[in-house]
Design goal:
18 strands; mainly beta; Porin; 4% helix; 1 helix
Length: 367
């Protein structure tokens, strides 16, 4: 009898099951999780969204002669309560194996990869979609291998990733889903933190391009220094090899930011960040997107923080602002935010904002 062929999801579940069966025999085991209750209501009360999210996390660890090996399995269960018949969903949020020693770290599976000093309008948002206003800082993971090597004042990272047809980060063209993507990053600390990053992938068709596929190369430089105020930048160049004079063959991103804590009350931190995206040539004055972000945070006491975060595109004439209050206790986080926008919105580097409305989140951490 021929056994039925398992799907990719089934094979992943079977592999994880074997990892659990073998590991539980003698591993150090830790179970923890987060429960999120959220409710969002538009300002005109026409739409109300309520939901529950649970992130159970199982961590298994073994000491080894050269270092350690561990597994991190985190699920994601969502129960939307929207009144439109939405059904609960379940899946993996993170599922990875990791081993390492004093000077290196290797991990493979569904994991999070992010880097760069940018906070709000990140040019180096290549593989994640973190929303600065999200109290849980949740983001999609990527499937692949990642190796970190640590020097005295430097970190070298290389990765090999699944070529995804889904758009990630600032991507506007999907991958072909065939040949794996690869890249690397080198970070050195010398009077600040300075990084150089590259990435290569095969991509599919782009709107307006003649070819149905092309190669894409990314090169980035970034840096961060503290000279009283903190200062940082991220610069990215994307190059593609579509035939003809396709304007999307060159794409540029630039993020410049800084922050400073004013000696007022318990310390008011003001951060400002600007973002530009251009096609064809960096010297071309036509800008496809130009956004400014301002973040003001006031810690009221040890548990409460007030903040105001606004995004502004003066050329397009829109503004998105979030006023929020957050209380952090031992096991609980309470978040209340009011979101307001003016003008018509185009693509935001930090993700699509909510419509005008009130957002409440209650988070419970266990374990």
């Amino acid at each position: 009898m021929v056994s039925p062929r398992r799907s990719g999801t089934e094979r992943t579940s079977v592999a994880i099951g074997w990892v659990l069966a073998i590991s539980l025999a003698g591993a150090g085991v830790r179970f923890q999780g987060q429960v999120l209750f959220s409710r969002y209501q538009t300002s005109d009360r026409s739409t109300t969204t309520t939901g529950l999210k649970y992130l159970p996390q199982l961590q298994l660890g073994y000491p080894l002669p050269w270092g350690f090996v561990n597994a991190d399995l985190t699920g994601q269960l969502d129960w939307p309560v929207t009144g439109d018949g939405s059904q609960p969903t379940a899946g993996w949020y993170r599922a990875l194996l990791r081993t390492g020693g004093d000077t290196w770290d290797l991990q493979g599976g569904l994991q999070q990869i992010n880097f760069g000093p940018g906070r709000y309008l990140r040019s180096l948002r290549w593989f994640d979609a973190i929303d600065p206003t999200d109290p849980l800082q949740l983001t999609n993971g990527v499937k692949g291998l990642r190796l970190d090597a640590y020097g005295m004042r430097s970190v070298t990272r290389i990765w090999l990733l699944e070529n995804s047809r889904d758009l990630r980060g600032l991507e506007s063209i999907p991958g072909r889903g065939k040949t794996p993507e690869y890249g690397g990053r080198w970070l050195i600390s010398s009077g600040g933190d300075w990084g150089i990053t590259f990435h290569h992938r095969q991509i599919g068709a782009a709107p307006g391009a003649i070819d149905s596929a092309a190669q894409e190369w990314r090169l980035a430089f970034d840096g961060a220094v503290d000279v009283g105020p903190g200062l940082w930048f991220e610069w990215v160049e994307n190059r593609r090899d579509y035939s003809g004079n396709f304007p999307g063959n060159q794409e540029y991103f630039l993020t410049v930011g800084g922050d400073y804590t004013l000696p007022l009350w318990s310390g008011v931190t003001v951060a400002v960040e600007s973002f530009q995206e251009r096609l064809g040539s960096w010297t071309d004055p036509r800008s496809r997107l130009r956004v400014m972000a301002v973040d003001v945070r006031l810690p009221v006491n040890f548990t409460d923080t007030l903040s105001w975060l606004t995004y502004r595109n003066s050329a397009a004439g829109w503004t998105v602002s979030t006023w929020s209050w957050q209380r952090v206790l031992d096991a609980w986080i309470v978040y209340l935010g009011w979101i307001h926008h003016t003008g018509s919105l185009d693509r935001l580097p930090s993700g699509a904002p909510f419509s005008d409305g009130l957002y409440l989140a209650l988070i419970f951490n266990h374990g």
